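From the methods appendix. Each design record in this collection lists the tokenized structure first, followed by the designed amino acid sequence. Records were kept in a plain field format so they could be parsed without special tools. The example shown here is representative of the layout used throughout.

RECORD:
FOLD TOKENS (77 positions):
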């Protein structure tokens, strides 16, 4: 599956393995995403998913073959 991350004005598309959260995928790709607790409490890792849903990326797994995770949009709202 593929995930496109939007963070700090940059778009990065990566190939992801199943079973990893969006945060894990971003960290593996060295995107340096925002995060803190990694346990779903703080909200620092929030991003907007391609379907418009606001998600905590440390707790959310990809559900289809392609996703867009927009950190910039979450920071603006
Ligand atoms: S890093 Fe705290 S909620 Fe995800």
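DESIGN:
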């Amino acid at each position: 599956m593929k995930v496109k991350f939007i963070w700090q004005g940059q778009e990065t598309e990566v190939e992801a393995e199943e079973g990893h959260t969006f945060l894990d995928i971003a960290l593996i790709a060295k995107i340096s995403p925002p995060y803190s607790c990694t346990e779903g409490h703080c909200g620092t890792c929030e991003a907007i998913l391609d379907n418009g849903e606001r998600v905590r990326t440390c707790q959310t797994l990809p559900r289809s073959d392609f996703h867009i995770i927009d950190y910039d949009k979450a920071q603006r709202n």
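APPENDIX NOTE: Residues 6 and 70 are 5 Å apart (CA to CA).
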